[in-house]
Amino acid sequence: MDGPVKKKKMVISQETMDVDFVRKVEMLSDTSVRRCFQCGKCSAGCPMATFMEHPPNRVVRLLQLGQWQRILAGRSIWYCASCETCSTRCPNKVHLASIMDALRKLSWDAEGASKESYVQLANKLFLQNIRSYGRQYEMRLAAVFNVKSGQFLKDLMLGPKLFAKGKLKMFHSKNKNMAEIEKIFGRIEEMRKNGEAL
Amino acid sequence: MTSDKALTYAYFPGCSLHASAGEYDLSTRELFKALEIGLTEVPDWFCCGATPAHNVDELLSLSLCAKNLELAEAVEGDLAVACASCFSRLKFTQHTLGENATKRQQVEKAIDAPVKLEGNVKHLLEILARDLGLERLAASVQKPLSGLKVACYYGCLLTRPTDVPNLDCVEAPTIMEQVIESVGAETVAWTHRLECCGANFTLSRPGVVIQLTNAILDAAKAAGADCIMVGCPLCHGNLDIRQKEIEGVFGANYNLPVFYLTQLVGLAVGLDSARLGLEAMIVNPLPLLKSKGFL
Amino acid sequence: MHPEKTISSDFEPKVIAFVCTWCTYAGADLAGTSRMQYPSNVRVLKFPCTGRIDPVFILKAFQQGADGVLVSGCHPGDCHYIAGNFHARRRFAAFRKLLEFVGVDLQRLQFSWVSAAEGGKWVEVVTELTEKVRAMGPMMEFKELALEEQWSGAMISPELQDAYRQI
Amino acid sequence: MSRIGVFICHCGENISRTVDVERVAAHAAALPGVAYATEYKYMCSDPGQTLLKKAIREQRLTHVVVAACSPRMHERTFRKAVEAAGLNPYLCEMANIREHCSWVHEDREQATVKACDIVGMMVERTKKNRVLPTITVPVTKRSLVIGGGIAGIQAALDIADSGHEVVLVEREPSIGGHMAQLSETFPTLDCSQCIMTPKMVDVANHPKITLYTYSEIELVEGYIGNFQVTVRKRARSVDERTCTGCGVCMTKCPQKKIPNKFDQYIGMRTAIYVPFPQAVPNTPVIDRENCTRFKTGKCGVCQKVCGPGAVDFEQQDTLIVEAVGAIVVATGFDLYSISEKPKGSPIKGYGEFGHGKIPDVIDGMTFERLASASGPTGGKIVRPSDGREPKQIVFIQCIGSRAREKGISYCSKVCCMYTAKHTMLYHHKVHDGQAYVFFMDARTPGKSYDEFWRRSIEEEEAVYIRGMVSRLYQKGDKIVVMGSDIAVGVQVEIEADMVVLATAVQPQQGADLLAQKLGISYDKYNFYSEAHAKLRPVECATAGIFLAGACQGPKDIPETVSQASAAAAKVMTLFSKERLEREPIVARVREVGCVGCFACKKVCAYGAVEEKEIRDRQGNLLRVVASVNPGVCAGCGTCQATCPSKCVELDGYTDEQIVAMIEAL
């Protein structure tokens, strides 16, 4: 994927192994990366491994070495389907699915470090929808996504059919709890600003 | 679990059931009415955040779910959840906040209220199989689904990971089979009951989704299934809505109607097909149901 | 801690260490053969096992003028006698209340694990306790209270009996 | 009034450099009860000891304190010297003024003060020392060996060859254990049965060995040198003395389709059976659960055809009490089953591998039976499902082992090697087949082991894939193996005809129950615990009980045999004396004050505290008090500190002695 970073020789020292970043991952995911002994069972069962440049076990390996830049520079974390197969079958109780969540969170914080844009865009729109409407409106989500991603014609054939089947609704009412939702978003932002949460 | 006391639940339909999965919502309400199980929708519930929220912001995901759990306290009864994704997130929230005191404190600050973890969160399958009980379910059958070969599809989120949803065995669950066999249908043994359909990428990477979903449809067909049964609107979206597209891309011919569990059980307990939202299904189920004599 | 007391700068605290023979005694021997240095205030009493150490000995030591007491044995799971240190730990946990009740500042009492291979740790533990107790000043409580009667003879009191029952 | 002698050693300059020994001697001489005090350059030397002995006699000393090095160094030396001078050795104590004083303090004044204190403490303690008799217990020179696998057989033969009687108890109908099930053995590929069966015959023919098969340990009482063991000899339904082993009963038995445990349930046997043709003893057993006679009362063919009339349907279990002086525990291992829920795990078995329901997914031991020339297929490797030869075979390592979510975190040690062996056996028998092995790392420490593993790859063409398998599922008549190769970083899929799982080595079922009967400790997996991981790997902490083989932890055959011989040597050492001598540091109960609460019994890790009935002259029970068996007591003193009424005393560490030391400060 990213030639320069991926192929570059890894120089290992206390300076190049970013322990702080790994600790953040461990704190967010509630799991230890040191427990992994690289058996590869996660990669063996991952439905998305064929789409990733770093298979799941290698993502953990890079974390063990404190080489997070190599992870975030690629798309692997954005191709995780959150299916929990890896966490379920790991012989060492490493919750890899949670580690992936943590990595995506930290990737967002690192602003634009990662390549994969479509998945990130979809996630962003989804969260914006919650903040603005309280609930998810698939029609709106899909339409905005297509506009923003420049794929105006994607799934064009599905639209009218779903509409006819009543699966896409044009109109929606605002949730009565909207004020409360805005407060939750606000409080979380506040906590992060004050360093009370990652 | 089974008692003569009237069963009544707080109901969390989730966003999809108010939109693309309207027939799941409709058939759930109708089925529960027919089975005399009380269902009261949690007022002003909001989105659980589903996969996108925990994908990039776990604290937000936990807070949204904790808020919903708090809202559900206002309604009597355990919380009935139809969508596997909502179910998974609510269960995850209960599990995580029960284990991690730091995260619990952060969430309490975010929602400005103590978190409530005591309430039971139940998927519809649990209510039918355990609370109502398979015997009572079987006793309500008017039209046994004899001769219908069903491939039960669990997907990722109903059972995984270990210790979180605790719905059934993580690797070899049987609850769906138990429910549908108790209303007279046959089930097929097949290989892709728990494989992922890629719902997370429905919007962003449909190319990935159709590959994963194709493998599932292929396995169900190979096992000799007449149809697929699901308990998740996201799985349904991929298996049903995209089926024609997949057939086109891969040159296959599946023609497998994808039912929600409440539609099939509803049919068996004698609900009129109009009240099951069958017309909303993209892969037309009517020829199959007619050929088996259920309509 | 005791502002009313004037602590002379040349106060040399008395520290008594109750140790098991298999781990900590051997660890202290190792500190010797390695010629490590530590304050000379400590006096060592050897027991076969920390399991043998009756909490009454601790009281007795304080009453006898000790300013600090160290109890040290094998690491959990390493007991030469399978589980003696485990029983000791449980027993001491139950006795903490009693010690507080009779006026022992728990700061003066230290429990630790020192294995036969940990000469350095023995030095650390002894030095630390000695300096801590030195800073706290002499242990006056028992001397003032003259508990002579209560803690002599059969060494049985209602509080002690009660504590035994809790174990 | 005591007359204590205090002897202060300079230890060359080791002590005298920092401690003013003359001042210490003067200080000691002034202590009440001290009759004599002196110092000398080397107390431990011959002249030093002579000085000590002379002083004891001339000064009529009653107690001795030697202020010198650590008692761990020279306590024995000085106690022997004291004994030679006619005093009880336990009236001599050492004051440690070297390791605990002169070596660790530089300030001469402080060190001298401390040395005086230490000597003072030991003087006060020694005053309270009592004469302690050396404790001896008689030794019954017979040994019990539990378990008739290779470990038990080796230990039994070694002990018996040294001329001592051995009672060998085996739970199964035949001895031989797992080694008799194996086809070939690594790293030499010699046939397991060829090297095993002669040893089994040796056991049967040995005049010093009493063999009880189909028997279990019911009860163990007593202590080192003096155990009484009750053995339950289960009803065989065939009289061992009259049976000639002709086997006619087995050929005539109508029940022929009972899965045979010895063949991992892939071969069949009759209801009256020997588990395998070379069984020792060669006397059949009736499996009452499956015998038509026992189920319906209808059959009885075996009895009719038995010439000598050995079949006895009425036979009952019998209990036999054996007196032995030592016990060797050699109960071996069992394999973890992927359909079972392991101890301490939330997960039931391996659902991702089909919970044991895919017929052609087998474990390593089943593969051994398939490959064994005397096995149910005559050594042909075929699939249990349809009898076809597998052309693609997949081996997966570390199933259950090294998997903490399954509750087992240890390495099973033998799987890497036996899998390498399996790939070779497979290659020898199925020339056009291919073996694949999914593994993490090959653990092959052992003589010629790594070479053996390399051979399986380089010469026998096994393909090793570094990576684990996520899932197995049946697809048609193939098993789809979803694995990964972490070196390449890609997923690997193999459509296999057969899959062999290297499942974890675990202790035998019920190992914990046997340990409780024996009073020995075991770890969280039920492996038996040795007394010291490095220096006493063969003994249990409980005196007189020794360990051999995989019951202590996963082991291969050479290691097992070594440990068995080591255990036998330990038993012979024990039997080399008429009576056992031991330090008299044991607990005693003052029966008068004992209220019979048995708090002491609860904390005793050795089971040394017994309940003793006190009766009046008419024999009426007055009360029950605690009593310590000096043969079993290890002398930790936990009972004494626990006793709420202060009625237990540990000799050598009495309250009096300790309080005297504290008061001396």
SS summary, helix count of chain D? 18
Judging from the principal axes of the Cα atoms, what is the shape of chain B? globular
CATH fold-level assignment of the largest domain in chain D: FAD/NAD(P)-binding domain
Strand order of the largest sheet of chain B: 2-1-3-4
Protein model, in words:
The complex is a heterotetramer of chains A (198), B (295), C (167) and D (665). Chain A contains eleven helices and no strands. Chain A is mostly helical and 198 residues long. The relative contact order of chain A is 0.11. Chain B has 295 residues and is α/β, with parallel strands linked by helices. In chain B, the strands form two sheets. A four-stranded parallel sheet of chain B has the order 2-1-3-4. In chain B, β5 (149-152), α7 and β6 (186-187) form a beta-alpha-beta unit. In chain B, α3 packs across α4 (84-99) and α8 (206-222) packs across α10. The model of chain B has no long low-confidence stretch (mean pLDDT 93). Chain D is built from 18 helices and 34 strands. In chain D, the strands form twelve sheets. In chain D, strands 10-7-6-18-29 form a five-stranded parallel sheet. Chain D has a five-stranded parallel sheet with strand order 20-27-21-22-23. The interface between A and B is large, with 67 and 62 residues.
Secondary-structure map with pairings?
The complex is a heterotetramer of chains A (198), B (295), C (167) and D (665).
Chain B: E1 8-12, H1 22-34, E2 38-41, H2 50-56, H3 58-72, E3 78-81, H4 84-99, H5 101-111, E4 121-123, H6 124-139, E5 149-152, H7 175-182, E6 186-187, H8 206-222, E7 227-230, H9 233-241, H10 243-250, E8 258-260, H11 261-268, H12 286-291
Chain C: E1 15-20, H1 24-33, E2 42-47, H2 55-63, E3 68-73, H3 84-101, E4 109-113, H4 119-136, H5 141-145, H6 158-166
Parallel strand pairs in C: 1-2, 1-3, 3-4
Helix pairs in contact in C: 1-4, 3-6
Chain D: E1 4-9, H1 21-29, E2 34-40, H2 46-58, E3 63-68, H3 71-84, E4 92-96, H4 98-102, H5 108-127, E5 135-138, E6 142-146, H6 150-161, E7 165-169, E8 184-185, E9 190-191, H7 192-205, E10 209-212, E11 215-223, E12 226-233, H8 248-252, E13 258-259, E14 268-269, E15 272-273, E16 285-286, H9 292-296, H10 301-305, E17 318-324, E18 326-329, E19 333-335, E20 361-363, H11 364-371, E21 392-399, H12 415-429, E22 434-439, H13 449-458, E23 463-466, E24 469-475, E25 478-485, E26 490-496, E27 498-503, E28 505-507, H14 511-518, E29 545-547, H15 557-575, E30 579-582, E31 587-589, H16 599-603, E32 609-615, E33 621-628, H17 638-642, E34 648-650, H18 655-663
Parallel strand pairs in D: 1-2, 1-3, 3-4, 6-7, 6-18, 7-10, 18-29, 20-27, 21-22, 21-27, 22-23
Antiparallel strand pairs in D: 5-30, 8-9, 11-12, 12-17, 13-14, 15-16, 19-28, 24-25, 25-26, 31-34, 32-33
Helix pairs in contact in D: 1-5, 2-3, 5-18, 6-7, 6-15, 11-12, 12-13
